[in-house]
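Case study.
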Amino acid sequence: MPITTPRPRPVCATRGALHLHITFAIALGATASLAIAGCASRSPSLHATASPLPAASDAGRDLTADQQVLQVVNRLAFGPRPGEAAAIRKMGVDRWIARQLDPSSIDDRQTDAFVARFPDYGEPIADLQRGAPEPNKVAAGRRKAANGAPMTAADSVAVRDARRAANRVVQDVQIVRVARAEMSHRELQEVMTDFWLNHFSVYDRKGGPMRYYLPSFDRDVIRPHALGKFRDLLGAVAKSPAMLFYLDNWESAADSTEPTLAPRPGGGGRQQLAGATATAAGVRPRRRESGLNENYGRELLELHTLGVDGGYTQQDVINVARALTGWSIARPEEGSGFRFRPRFHDAGEKIVLGHVLPPGRGVEDGEDVLDILARHPSTARYIARKLCQRFAGDAPSPELVARAAETFTRTDGDIRQVVWTIVTSPEFYARAAYRSKVKSPFEVVVSSLRAVDAAPDTSPRTAQIIARMGEPIFGHQAPDGYPETGESWMNTGAILNRINFGLAVAAQRVPGATLDRWPGSAALMTASRAVQVDAVVTSILGGDASPDTRTILLSGEHPLLASGDAPSGMKSSAADPGALGSAAGLQGLAQVVGLALGAPEFQRR
Amino acid sequence: MQRRVFVKSGALALVTMGLSPSFLRRTAFGMELPATRKGKVLICLFQRGAADALNVVVPHGERAYYAMRPTIAVPQPATGARNATIDLDGFFGLHPSLAPFKPLYDQRLLAIIHAVGSPSTTRSHFDAQDYMESGTPDDKTTTDGWLNRYLAVRGTCDECRLQDTTAGTRAAENRPAAFRAVAFAPQTPRILEGPAPTIAMNSLDEFSVRATGTQAERLEALYRTGSADIVHATGSETFDAVRMLRAANPQQYQPSNNAVYPRSPFGQRLKQIAQLIKAGVGLEIAFADVGGWDTHVNQGGATGQLAQRLDDFAQSVGALVADLGDRMADVTILSMSEFGRMVRENGNGGTDHGHAGAMFVIGGDVLGGKVHGRWPGLEPEQLYEGRDLALTTDFRAVFSEVAARHLGAQRLDVIFPGYTQGAPPGLLG
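After joint prediction, the assembly is written out as follows.
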């Protein structure tokens, strides 16, 4: 086996380097949580005070003041609402960003009140499981009670209701996600939540209790840390029932050849700890053995921290998985939270990326691994590059990535500092960066609804439209998340969906979308076409449409069309709720808006 | 070569398979296909998540297979047993959920190649999928996919050009059909990325603009103008394609030969591929993918999670073959998955990431009825890195043979840069 292991060195040997980071962090006023367990005591990091942001300089910014505003509101928020660009311009882009980086300073009670209308979203996991038991379990229970007799109509109703209740749990978290992105004043917080939910992607149809874990994943795991310290975020994810279940770590256990921290279930105690190496003499039980599962260990390295080229071996994957054995989920009657199970934990010695994890330890093995990974230079580069792709452009310059990674390392993974480095950079305000990103389906839908100041949708329909456009919320099966880059979103089918969506918004066929909420729309309704086009270009296309687009929007003075030869096969139906239905021939202002939302300029941010 | 194969297979069985007699006559008597035939079609199916090849094409003659998979091995073939391996050649067999493939194998329409895959050592899903789609293992600088490179250099398929049905709007120029390459996926898959125009869509149903008359023309104008960037370029392709599809009217589609597609997304996508092939819109490359193969936990044996995935896979592909009937003479279906899975089952009744895998090749050109490839064995010293099925065939050898023999590609050096072609694996005649 050509696996090379770097020369082992004990974890504590890294303390010198880490102390250096502590010094930096303290100098910046940041809190520190750097101690490696087993070497020194671990102190929880606190976010009571955010570290001060370095001064921003607008030297080297190519874009005009108006363009800077649009760049900011399209990248750090999901596009402008009517009047928002003017407000940001007045405040100044740097001040607006700094305020967004401190979301708790922004009053968002209106959004909170909306979210409170979806009680499932706020429930603890165990309460959800009690209130809406798994439909399969309900069905099994009914079958058992029937004792061989066919299920009654009442049984069928009970199973159907259980399915609906369980679906509602997922729907509610999807509704809340869309509504917050649309209406929250903590706009950057929403963008970062979107970013991290995608970085730590989980899948709602994994089966079992997966869906009950999603509200908590959004609410307790990602949001509180979205602008915090990366190590805290990583730790919260690693201990979240959602990730533990999705990537199977909850049932990963020491292989039978390794000692466990506590006696195994079923009398495997002979192999327990004390450095005992298993003998081959033991007869293995024939029933399903428990043992190591590499799934989370691999994706933790590949997708969550180091990146696939971050410099780890298959042996590192195995040892990370070994260190994380026993990281599991408590049963519902115990609250369904994180639970460390000593009987599953591999207590042997492990070497991870050259660090020795001594034998005989428990949960601190995994904590050490997360410390090592969160502070690894490959992680700094990988996360920095991905954030640069989100905010600055699909192919960020190596210099910008290096500066962002340097901030990541210097601030011990302070996400808000890394974002600040990126969004105050000359690269962010370069001419080439302006409108250089293609919107994802989530972005195109939310930005369209914001552009017409739509009321938030209380139904799952908007989320279903986003799903139909290729980006279902919690619907990406593989753990890599959706692409951060544009070309994968741009293809023929996608363009059609986007054009149709723009028309559907203007035709008020998307819940909450109406032109009535748009400032000045009453006066515009009867205005000349030229005035309408100017207003739409200003408000929806940021005052910046290509001559071609403007010509198209202007041409044709008279109202168009009754509904005519609309092609078939596009009806919205219960089976396909994301389909948009045929738009009746639009007229006047609505037509201009529909065309603008489908225009190439609006597909970019 | 394949003609002789079909002589052997027998008319009756083909008819029961839903393959029409006209196809049989042509092949059985070695007649040249009519000059007016439609072009060759390649359908690529990607099983994302790393299908467990050892439980798909089961080496039931291997003692080590049963030793290392105490709870998930598929039982050895037994006469009349429903939940046992379906024997193929005394050593290999099909998972029982692949029963629809057995008649195809017997008719020599289906070939299997085992211990095939990427020479890269990666066990990352995403890197491995990337390599299989870019066609350049361990080279991350490749920006396009190998199917797109094929499209760019063309094959000998002269028929795969637009027969322009919209006279008046456009001269019947000799340009590629808008539907030459179609992926049924929300995003363009890596394998089709590149400069040659391709289409990606979820379904034919959504493939139209919900605007009427003048309004649609205005939208079209919006997208036809402007610079040659992603959004504009894609927009123009879109309107070409919509126009063609309307002319073909695929909404009226009824499968032939009583083919029944599963209602699953994968089954429906294959049905739509058949629709496009029969609509005569110039389809040459079709792509669909299907997930759910990453069976780290409770994958099951003859029944269970993997069996359910295989049910959907085999029934969908079986329906496609039956539905296409005699068109299968010009169609090759090629399945792939990024790598195989560990030989030894893991601690949760599942399997972790492995190395070599298996592929299915189905079609009229195929030298079927055989498990191709050199079998490396499953004894400990025969395994890759002591844990996985070793690789004996580079996936590029298979892809090259399909591109060259089926599609007539001549520039394999462009399609698979850096790959030294060896003897073809002999999957196609």
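Observations recorded in class. Residues 1-37, 156-175, 225-229 of chain B have pLDDT under 50 and may be disordered. Chain B touches chain A through 64 residues (CB under 8 Å). We will return to this complex in the next lecture.
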